[in-house]
Amino acid sequence: MNIATPDLTKSRIGHTACPHDCPSTCALDVEIGPDGRIGRMRGSADNSYTAGVICAKVARYAERLYHPERLLTPLRRRGEKGSGDWQEIGWDAALDEIAEAFVKAEARHGSEAVWPYFYAGTMGWVQRDSIERLRFAKRYSGYFDTVCVNMAWTGFVMGTGSLHGPDPREMAKSDCVVIWGTNAVVTQVNVMTHAIRARKERGARIVVIDIYDNATMKQADLALVVRPGTDAALACAVMHVAFRDGYADRAYMARYADDPAGLEAHLATRTPEWAAAITGLSVAEIEAFARLVGETKRTYFRLGYGFTRQRNGAAAMHAATSIATVLGSWQHEGGGAFHNNGQAYRLDKSELMGTAMEDPSIRVLDQSQIGRILTGDAEALRHGPPVTAMLIQNTNPVNVMPEQRLVKQGFLRDDLFTAVHEQFMTDTARLADLVLPATMFVEHDDIYRGGGQSHLLFGPKLVEPPATVRTNLFVIEELARRLGVADRPGFGYTEREMIDRILRRSNMGTLADFEANRWIDCQPDFETAHFLNGFAYPDGRFRFSPDWRNGPSPVKPPESLGAMGPYQGLPAFPDHVELIESTDADHPFRLATSPARNFLNSTFTEMPTSRQKEGRPELLISPADAAAHALADGDVVRIGNPRGEVRLHVRLSETVRPGVVIAEGLWPNSSHLDGEGINVLTGADAVAPYGGAAVHDTKVWLRKDAP
To answer: Which residues does 195 contact at the CB level (< 8 Å), separation at least 6?
Structure first.
C-alpha cells in the first residue's frame, strides 16, 4: 500500500516514482520510519523496466529532503538584487505581492509583460504544468520550451512520423545494443540494466558511440569516440556499407521507405574513408561497426540526447534512425531504433494546462533565449513589450540557460519583478525579489510519464512536508484566486482530483485503480511499436527525405514562430552538414558540457555527498593538448569565446580527443573560480528546424591562466 501518513509503531515501504528529468522515470520503494521520515530509496523490483535498480543520487534522497539549507520560509529581498539580504514574510503577504506585481506589469505594458517560466525540475504533470493554465487564463506571454528535446525529437519523428519505438525492455532480447550519444551509466542507468542482461544471457555485443571515453564507454565491446557534431557522417558511412555489401534489406525498404533508390545514390560517395576524415574514427572502426550491425538482425539502436545538442543535431538523429530502416532492424524483436516513448501515451492534459483558453495572438517567447529577452533584444521579444514580471517554478535559468552573462544581466534589472518557487537558494533564487519554499516529490501527489520506457506512474504523497512549504499547485491556485481567474476551467481541483480527471478523460480508469496498481504499462503492441503496420505518415513510409520546413514534430513551434534557425541548410537525405560552431584559428577547441554522474542538471548540486564525489568544476583535456599549452593536472586554465570567458582547473585525461575539451556537470555558478558557470560560453541561437539549445556545440580558445 502507499503510505500517506506515518505509522508511529513500525517502518513501512511506500511506493512512488522518481520525479526528476531523466528518461528512466524509475518506480521507487521508499523506506518510511516510525518517525515519519524517509530512509533509503530503492528501485522497485516489481516494475519490469526499473527492475530494482536506481541511480546512487536518488538512493540517498533523504540527504536532500532533510538538508539543513533547504528553503523553509518565504523570503522578501531587502537589499540589492543578489546581495543575499532577505527578510521572512508570510505566505499570504508574499502571494499578494506577486499578484500585485503582475497587475502592475499588465497595467503598464499589457498582459504579455508577465512571463511565467518553468521547466523540468519535476516531471510530475500537475506540479509542473499547472502554471500553463494560469498563463492561458491571464493571456500572459507564451512559452516555447527549447533547452532539451527539440533536435532529438524532431530528427526522430522526421523519419518515423511518431515519437515511439520498440519496447526498451527488448534490449534484453537483442544480439547487439548500440548506445549512441548518451552516457547511460550516468544519466539513465536502466538502459544498462537491460543491455547488460542481453550480454549475459545472449552474448550480445554492446556498442557505445560518444565524444569521449566516459563511464558507458567502459562497458562497451566496441567503443567509437567521434568528433563532436559528426555523428551523421558515421551513420551515412554505415548505410553506405550496408548498400555496398548486401546488408541493406531492399525488400523491407521497398515496402516501408519513401525513396531507397535516391538514398543509395546519395550515399554512393559517403564512404568509410569520407566519414573517417570527418569523425576522426579509423576506416577499420567504421567498417567493423557497419559489419556488426549489418550481420546482426536483432540490433537495437538506443539513441540518446547528447549527440543531438549540436546545431546539426536534428539531422544527426534522423541519420542514425535511418540505419534501422536501411537494415530492416525494425522487423525483429530486440531490433529497431528507440529514442523516446512520448507519443505512446494518449493522455488528455488539456484541462490541466487550460489549452482551451490559449490565445494564438499572444506572443510566444523562446525559453533558451531568456538572456536576450530580459535584456531587451527586440527580435527575441518578438517586437513586443518588455518582460517586467516573472514567476519561476522547477528551473534555474541563471545557471542552466545559455548566454549566462545576458541571463544574469537581465535578472539584475531594477524594473524586473521575479518570484522564484524553489527548494534551495539556487543561482536564480539569489537574484529574485521573492523566494517561496517548495515541497519535494514525496510530499505531494502527482502523475509521471516515462520517456525512456512505457509506464505511467503514480507518485503519491508519502510524508508530511514542513508546515511552511507549499506545492506548486497551491501557488498557482492562490495566484489565480488573487488575479480573478479561479473560476476558469481547470482551477479549483486538488492534485488527486486532477489526476483522476486526466485518467477519466483519457479512458484510462480512475485514480483509485491507478493507485492500487501503482502504474499503467502503455507500451504499444509489437506491430505498432516496430512500425510493422507502417510508419506514421499517410503512406506508411519512413522518410529518408524529410520535409524539414513543414514536417511533423511533437515540439513544432507555433505558427507565429515558424521554422527556426538555418533550416534551409538541412540535407535532402541523411548527411553530415556543417551547421556546427566549427573551430577556427582563434577558437581551436570544441567544448561539450556533458552530464556529471552525481548531478542532474542543477539538481543534487546542493547535496554534500554529490559535491564530494564530483570534487570541483574541472576541464578535461587530452595530454597532447595539455603538453602543447604547458598545462599540468590542477593548473588553472582560461577558456573563452565572444560570449565570455571562464576559469577552470585542468584535469588531464586520456578519455578526451585532442581538440576537444569537456566540462562535466552543471556546477553552481558560485562553485567556479570567478562565480560564473560554464554556460557563459554556450549560445542561444535557435537550432534548425524547430529550435533548441546547442549546449554541446561551442568553440573556445584556451590559455593557461597567469599564476
So the answer is: 171, 172, 174, 177, 179, 184, 204, 206, 219, 302
